[in-house]
Amino acid sequence: MTELSIRGEEFLLxxxxxxxxxxxxxxxxxxxxxxxxxxxxxxxxxxxxxxxHWAYPDTGEWDPNRNLEEFCAALPTWRxxxxxxxxxxxxxxxxxxxxxxxGSYQNNGFTPEGELKPAYADRLxxxxxxxxxxxxxxxxxxFYWVFVKQMENEKAIWRAAHSALDWLEGTGRHNVxxxxxxxxxx
Length: 186
What we know:
Largest sheet: 4 strands, parallel
Distance between the termini: 34 Å
Strand content: 15-25%
Helix content: 25-40%
Strand order of the largest sheet: 6-7-8-9
């Protein structure tokens, strides 16, 4: 099991500083945590009117499980090239910035009342497990500005945060960092 810890200003994986002794362009990178923003790894669009935008060319259908499987299949190559962390988000991110689509697709791992949706939890668990096998940290974002506005109220936001954090704790994984909110002015 991969274990992330912090000592002083350095990230450690399994007790050793990341990029131990490495220098890039004359600057030490030991203890840093380079990552890829991969918030679409767990993406799904529950809106039938926008779902077709993400369809695979070979099938003409969108498949969130295929998306996840292809992401997980790429992780070993990323790890081989020095990526030690990936960022995913329970409320996803914007896969395509086209105003008429951006406000309509539905990629929210929480219900409006703040419950974690089982399908999102399942995809997230699969990311955590594969990353753990490879010695990769997963930075789990909870909220994204587009979808936090769709939460029922402030209590629902708190419920969502507690729901996700309790779920994360329950996984027993130690390769996780939490980003509470992405692109949100709080």
